[in-house]
Predict the structure.
Amino acid sequence: LLKPSPPLACTVRDCGLWLEARGPVLACTRGHAYDVARSGYVNLLQPQDRRSLAAGDVKEAVAARSRLLAAGVGRQIVDGFVARAAALRLTDGAVVAELGAGGGDVLGALAAARRISGVGIDLSTSAVARAIRAFPDVTWVVANADRRLPLLDRSVDLVLSLHGRRNPAECARVLTRKGWLLIGVPGRDDLIELRESVQGHGVRHDRSEALTAEHLPWFALVERFSLRATHRLEPDALVDLLRGTYRGARRSLIDRVDALKPLEVTLATDVWLFETAR
Ligand SMILES: [Zn+2]
């Protein structure tokens, strides 16, 4: 059921051995086993790594992002991010992992463009279930990307995170000696018009220094660039932006968006490309 032996690692504390497909389960040689869902994804979440999640909100966020992408909103951002990844020198069968893969659009698009072995990780079962329906050629895993990643040491050629989780120490552990890390985070003026409209002010967060600093112990910066787009959006799409962009819908804001008129909105994502520095 799972695709060509991805380098998945057992998530039982202090185990970390390779998980081999054995019929309907994945198991390590110590006998820790994980059921593969009928649809083909595997849940590697340990009880201590669960986080209280409002499952409905997550499902809503995934659906909102999917509606926006289907309408082309955010498409340039995803396409630009995927294009940068596809331009890296990845050999056939290179292992590419995505943290916080959501509905799978980024990794799915890269897998369509390049011959990779993709492993998408998300904490949400509903996101992963959606991803595997859309992109069955990628391995989809439910796990907490803030904890120990369910991947073997030095087994991954490229880690992706677009508006997803970041975990520099773990990325350094799982990446090969010539590995890449491609990260996209909301830029300072991302959704600024929408945030100004619903909050009365828009805080321009600058995450760039903190993000660079948190990676420099393990990585060398290769490149930084921005991806931008503007869209004139109707109120229903504005509600989807709030639902989908900020995890956990902000109900009070969403109520206020309902009173808005169509709005020209900026989407801005800052992208960092790092390589492993050893
Ligand atoms: Zn094990």
